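Researcher: Structure prediction, please.
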Amino acid sequence: MKIVQSIKKFLSNIPVAGWLLGILAAVLIEYFWGYDYISDYLGLPKIPVLFGAILMLKDPVMIPGVLAYDLVVYVLPVCIVGKASAFFTNPLAGAMEKLPLWISVLIHLCCFYGILSLWAGINDYRVLVVKLTLISIILTISINVINGYQGEFSCSHPGFMAVGAYVSSVITLFLFANDKIFGAALLPPALGPWLFPFALVIGGIAAAVASLLVAIPSFRTRGDYLAIISLAFMFIVKSAVENINVIGGARGMGGQPDLAPLHVIFIWTMLCIWVVHNFVTSIMGKALNAVRDDEAASESMTVKTRKTKMTAFMFGAFWAGIAGGLFAHVLTYINPGMFSINRLAEILAMVYFGGLNSIVGSIVGAVSINILGEALRPLELFKWIIIPLILIFVMIFRPYGLISFKEINAGKLLAAKKNK
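Model: Predicted structure follows.
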């Protein structure tokens, strides 16, 4: 414990700008020397992805080489460069504190995206993992509005995701693709990237409207009825799309134009974080927390409880529809099986692992479960034993998740750090 405390104290004066600089150094080392020098010298057959977890699990003999690679490429450069640069990144962070907060946040996000895209661009697999992880962040944050801030238990998110995915796919196929069902493209494909946000928003609105089918009957009841009705809604949506041949039926719908590059998904994810943060910290968000803690008391204090719950439910469904639209255009193919009980289990695992009532927890849960799921892929069946066991231990020792009831404080996060 003393060693951990000493390391924590040693690194405590590194601001976010310093950490970004250290991560950039690590990514550049891997980008220029990871393939040809470091991996070969350590006896690795190829450059490790996802920090070498997949390579280690496939061939345990590679464990020492992978650990050495992570130490040389990631750990040491990040810590050394971050610590060494603190003498000028702290004054830089202090100077940015004088700017409007949104400008400082935007500068840091642009730097972070540049580093992330450089790291992901090393191979296509990383790009796909990053895209799906960002979409999972949107899903986790959106369900946290309902299951965390609202205090209900909804199982309908895969259904909302499916509505958004299919509606946005129909729009883009009809407008920008030559499809065997919808015929020739109505508009030039070059307009697709510019009009794609409108297709996503329409898909989100469709999901929000569909959420009324759950909200109207369930919020007239008490107890666990929302979970039952929302679960039924998920199966209804899945059965409906399986039997509508116009949208592919059980075969699925393919051929969506590739309109979701990394920067588009990154922008939508940051937009989701910002909008949801503003929502949960607004008067509506405070009312939502009051309804969660004591509905009768909230009603007596003139809070319109039913309206508050329905607004939050539709808000969460809207962002689930956005995530579904992005998901469909990343894979350029969707089928009803992608929005089944397995998807629900993944979404619930992410939100309860990361933490309720916390956007930070939602981000941690989405990133952790996605990376862990990919890293354990070589274990096949055992993967679905290890992940549930981890969740069980988290639920025992941290019932509300790893990071619960904690909001983002951008000003404090990006501020200069003082020596302790």
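Model: Residues 192-218 form the longest helix (27 residues).
Researcher: Thanks, that helps.
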